[in-house]
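Box S1 | Example of a co-folding query
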Amino acid sequence: MAYSLRVSGIVPESIVDGPGIRYAVFVQGCPHRCPGCHNPQTHDFEGGQDMGIGEIAAQIEENPLLTGVTFSGGEPFCQAEALYWLGLKVKAMGKNLIIYTGYTIEQLLVMEKRRSYVGKLLRLADTLIDGPYVESLRDLDLPFRGSSNQRIIDVKEYFSKQGRGEQAERESGALITV
Ligand code: SF4
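Box S1 (continued) | Returned holo structure for iron/sulfur cluster
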């Protein structure tokens, strides 16, 4: 299947959307409407333009200087399926993947029960920067975030800790599955 993304913009070499030189994909469409959002042009789901994920992957592949790729927005998890397939290509190139989201990781874990690609995309990321932008918590000194409620989450470590916690609960008899 040829997937396409609704894209607000691409920054082919960004140094502000995560460490190193990154290819940043800003998707179009965001349901969060955070007051004070710096990218209001990305909110309208009818705005932006379509881009094939093959075209985006080719642009990433031809730049050997890239450290990684960042999915931002807009809300990436509103286009989880297409971004999952693009993310797979990114990972196959050996690039690191950062995803920004206005949802918390806990909300994504609830959402994945209804929309499996939300969970698949989440698990593909190396780093998740989660939570809405909260203007009253704005902090210009924070690296790669706008407000102090947003967390930089090492996704592999998060799931490995979660797995260890569930294992311990199972061993103590505290976790009962039916
Ligand atoms: S989640 Fe991001 S793009 Fe969406 S409204 Fe909030 S700050 Fe803006």
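The mean pLDDT is 94. The chain is about 30% helix and 20% strand.
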